Structures are given as C-alpha cells and as structure tokens.
Amino acid sequence: MKAKMRTDSPSPAKPLRGKKTWREKLHDAKGLPKVGPVCRNMAGVKIGETMVIPAPIEVDALMRRVPRGKLTTIDALRTSLATKHRASVACPITTGIFAWIAAHAADEASAAGETEITPYWRTLKTKGEINPKYPGGLPALTARLEAEGHVIFQKGKRMYVRDFERVLTRFAPAKASRMSPARRKKSSRDAD
To answer: Which CATH number do you get for residue 151?
Structure first.
C-alpha cells in the first residue's frame, strides 16, 4: 500500500537546517555599521585611524550604482564607505565579504525570477582582477563583462579587465553618517 503524500502544505520559507538564504544574509545588519578606532596595525590600517565596518546592504547599494559599461573595485567601495561614515578607512575584509554576499544574493534573486539584480560582475578586486568566487565563476563573469564591451586578459591563472581604470564609476561623495562623535565612541566600545 502506498502512502499518500500531503500536497496542500506550504513549502518552507527557509532552507532546511535553519540556514539563511543569501538575501537574508544581505539584510542582516547585525548592528552594523560601526565606526571605531583601530587597535592594532592590520591590512594597511594603522593604530589610531578610524575604521568603519559597513552593513552588508550598504555595500550592495554601492554595487547597484555601477551602470552598464562601467566598473568599480572593492577599494573604490571602501573609499566611498569611509567618506560616508567620516572614517579613515573601511574594513577591507568585511567589505569584500559583503560584496561576495551581495553577489550571491543577486544570483539567488535572479534564480527566483527577479530581473533587477545587483550587477556584481562589475565589481572587481584590486588591479582589475575578476573575482572567481562570484556566482558562475570566471567563465560566466568573463562572458558578462565581454558582453558589456570589456576586454579580458589572463595573467597566470587570474583574469583581469584591460584598462579598467578608464571606466571606473566615480561615486559622488556620500552623505556623511549622522552618527555623533559620542555615539561613534559608544559604538566602538560595544564592539569590544
């Protein structure tokens, strides 16, 4: 005797085992952004400088502003975020991770049928390198960039966009964060 499967129950909204979707990760700010003093030298950031750890959605919002035919880099995103939050620098590690999350969230949205997604393929690593960890890997990213008129070249195992500097998006100075110096100081204490 075959058991009948119940077909009227709704499908789960989240993946099994409680894992968050990429889009949920993108919108999970975890108390970010935070601005505070750097306590040790790291990744070119010196003690005493102020560093912002941005919210994932802030990184995504900047990536969305890059029009067809133009490009940006993680360093350009960091500069814009630091200016917005009146910090010396933006965290290089979290900015890169949040760009990666934004890329996967866009891919997830595309798979769900959405057409207005973050153009993550337009965000490059330092020196114009294509990020192989973005959805689709190098073949898909190369195809997207070439379709927008960019010339791709290989150097060793890495892929780059030729003359990427000529087509970099210039982000208008962002409005500075309204976080007061006292609140900024409290925010950095909360991070400890």
So the answer is: 1.10.10.10
